[in-house]
Design goal:
The chain has 580 residues and is an alpha/beta fold.
Length: 580
Amino acid sequence: MVPCYPASTRGVSVAKHGKLRLGEVLIQHRVISQDQLKQVLDEQHATGRRLGKVLIENGYASEQDICQAMAVQLNIPFISLAHYDLNPSLSRRLPEALARRARALLLEERSDHLLVGMCDPSDIYLYDEISSTLKQEISVAIVMENELIPALDHVYRRTEEISGHARALEQDLGDVDAATPVVELARTQEDAPVARLVQSLFEDASQVQASDVHIEPQESSINIRFRINGELQLQTVGDIRIAAALAQRLKLIAGLDISERRLPQDGRFQIEVKQGPLDVRISTMPTPYGESVVMRLLSQAGHALRLDKLGMPEAILRKLRTLLGRSSGMLVVTGPTGSGKTSTLYAAVSEINDVRSKIVTVEDPIEYRLPDITQIQVNDKIELSFARVLRSVLRQDPDVILVGEMRDQETAQVGMRAAMTGHMVLTTLHTRNAASTPVRLIDMGIPPYLVGVSLQAVIAQRLVKLICDHCKERAKPTPVEQEWLKQTLGDAVAQLQLKHGAGCSHCHNTGYSGRVGIYEMLEMNSTLAALISQGQTQPFINEAQQQIRGTSLFDQAVRLMETGRTTVQEVIRLNNLLEE
């Protein structure tokens, strides 16, 4: 908890302006000059916008500068929510609708009043409304909007709302006639418990940036779990009676066969949430207790993926951009499921997308819709396979082809030949690291000479969990970790200042918040091409490992640990995966 200067005042008077003007405070603290203030005042008078907004838009001050100056002006505290240990149960005493409208958050309960953080404490009307709603005297602190919005999303989770909808659905099922088919409940109106439960699930999952939602029927209950930062977290447990209605509702939305419960089904649909449109890939699987449903969530809101936003090392990014400028050859991005391979390919395609090039993608499924690009969905049910589509694509005169995955020998061979005959081919493969990828292609039945001629480079990637900034602290390694560090880093371990997350409300007591990509790149030079063309796999691997020494996935993970961004446990986990 980090309250900042100056000391808090009490009562309505905090919302009244002090004697100093905001511009004067900023000049006194040497944030802006007199000339800059005159310029923005002229612009403010012309546009009617707030002075702080004009200063930020012109780049003369940051949001933190403005907030700290307002704190001095109004004689109230400035509080950074980035390092504030929130109490969600307390904060929820302020209704969500009012909190979001007033851009306010209830922070503390003190002996005789409540402390509320506001983005605009000078708004006397909102101050009065908050005080009236809470029915208690309040004092205010100023907080930054870019920290408040994520804090509101964290506090106003829909866990209780989801549980309430689940209980309402249980009641709904108990009230209907036993002869009523479950499908009729699934088809019910949009304000029915099952519909509200589904909507709340997606709203909450989007709010916490979950990548997947798992609905798992058990013998006497149904578990709903979210995958956040690569780990599953239990969201709610409901009565097993709601499992069928929930599964049927989701299948109905996705246009799946609601009468078929014995076979797996796959589909997709789009749903609107507060954060924007959400693209959902759904998979159902029969189990002894009902249908298990897993949904992958892909946000369609926000900006297009960009290579320079992926976190690649500058050296790899530079080499990749050079490679993408070529007219032929194959680039393979490799890694396990959920490692961000598709995001890398989409970012690469977006970078080279212009009117002079015809770009075609062959995917299963199409994850993101890209403008001005021809995207084709594979459909095995009608024998529209990767290989068959790829052959037809070659007759469409493409410059760049993105193949979602090299799943079989036929697809890989067609893709390789396309790369050799004047097309740039981008694709993915499941391998441990970059060095083993060309060998894997040979194991799939691709002639070694074709690999040597066509393959230009391999990028291997993983996602590493980051320590939560809100509860980061010094960590003492266990004896096992200490021994592993000595064997791995040698004497350098003595200088390490390891960190970990103690667990807090911001990270749901996991100690981690967010993930970052790590990458290694293997360029196929003449030596490597000659070795793989001759089928000398072990000499090839030795030479490839020598090329990426110091820049491997493991090396990058260790650097994250050394700089206090991830834990030794996470690096050991990654190392074990790379050695499997």
